[in-house]
Amino acid sequence: MAEEFSNFIHDFIDEDLEKGVYDHVQTRFPPEPNGYLHIGHAKAICINWFTKEKYKGTFNLRLDDTNPGKEDIEYAESIRKDIEWLVESELPETLYASDYFDFMYEVAIHLIEKGKAFVCDLSPEEMKEYRGTLTEPGKNSPYRDRSVEENLDLFKRMTAGEFPDGARVLRAKIDMSSPNMNMRDPVIYRIAHLSHYRQGDKWCVYPMYDFAHPLEDAKEGVTHSLCSLEFENHRPLYDWVLDEGDVAEMLGWPRPRQIEFARLNLNYCVTSKRRSLYLVEGGYVDGWDDPRMVTISGMRRRGFPAAAIRDFCERIGVSKAYSVVDLGLLEACVRDNLNANATRAMAVLRPLKVIIDNYPEGKTEIIEAPPHPDKPELGTSKVTFSGEIYVEQDDFMIEPVKKYFRLFPGNEVRLKSAYYITCTSYETDDEGNVTCLHCTYDPESRGGETPDGRKVRGTIHWVSADSAANVEVRLYDRLFNVENPSDDSKELCEYLNPNSLEILEDSVVDKSFLEGLKVGDTFQFMRKGYYTVDTNSDFDKKIIFNRTVDLNSSWK
Known about the structure:
By secondary structure, the chain is α/β, with parallel strands linked by helices. The chain has helices spanning 8-19, 39-54, 73-87, 101-113, 124-131, 148-159, 209-220, 235-244, 247-251, 273-281, 296-302, 306-316, 327-341, and strands spanning 26-29, 58-63, 95-96, 117-120, 169-172, 187-191, 205-207, 224-228, 257-261, 343-345, 347-348, 351-356, 364-369, 381-386, 388-392, 412-415, 420-428, 434-442, 459-460, 463-464, 468-476, 501-510, 522-525, 529-533, 544-549.
């Protein structure tokens, strides 16, 4: 993938290398540890990782832990695990923005000494008023012209914990009339009397993201800071911090270049961490790794192969144009991958018993079937056949509709890899529900061939009752029933698909299928789709299979 992965970003990099701006390429992925990674992050990871691969450069995972009020070690640990799974490679040691707090503080002091930063006493409400609008320039803070000495004194007292939260901030001194709102004397440090999960109580002032981010990139020697398009308007501030902070001179190497690409917008999904947290805390999903979520951990639990997600990211490409990608494309990438790689097996999700009346009583036999039609080297799978089997409930109709070729009274079908059977009668309960079928079989039709060469139009899968093992199957579907659940006109819960999860507790597979089974194994259940062993399976009690995707898209 790395050799073929080319785009406008690489054109910029080629230009920089040709001009000698850099003699190598170093990328990074800098998430905040305040939530789990999602499919949008997967795109950014792939862009940064495979750019590094193409140029034989280096890649950093850096946790941007500058906001102690929202960060958690759980998120930090999940991020590394998710990335290593996605790129199928061990990452270098995780880096942390908080390890650069001393360096950031040094740059802040340098800006104050240059007259490029000042301590401001305006309240948040007053600051908003002074900021102006998109059509009107802002006004200078009355504290903007404090002397360098006063600013240094106040900032050091802020650092010493003398003032409460919100009392003062440190602002960059840029231009209150700039058409770019991000350049109107932005806040670069605020007071926060919060313990940091890595730094403890060392700091009570913390840098703002737009100030910290370019300094983190520079400190690590990142050459190209590749980020999504919402940071394009922040690039002037990114450059200002590096240039006015004299960072290249301070560190002794070229400063990084920021390049933006369009973020991934996927329909029928939400990727906002705030909205994802709403779903988790509201109990609308079973945690961040719920298989209906498009978090990386959720997709992994559902059974999406890492290679399929990477394929999806490559197919959608890299551009600056806003677009919305159909979730069906991601599902198609998963389906294509599993069709080529997933082992086949028979599982009956909604069992209906079939008694084969003319099959010898007490007899069982072994039926062999190929586990993959395109991989003969895998040999055959062996399952038990007997006079009582289970088939799917929807493989029988009392009064068949047009072009229904499965079981109905008087009709003959082929049992996959076994025999031809003909339905002779059926039993019902007091409410008229079909509870059992009676059939006869043709003992000369084993393997699907008959001496007279007759053919049938219906082939169905089955599981022998004699060797059936009970499993739980969870039929996952799309979490939302509207294309744009991010629409703020309603509560997010009002867009939830009520049929996003159906749990089948009485599904059956052949006992032999469970031998050597482990969490994360994915199979094609013949005629039913692709299913993955859930991470929450208790192998001593009941194994859980998650539906990964159908054989074909069934969404309407």
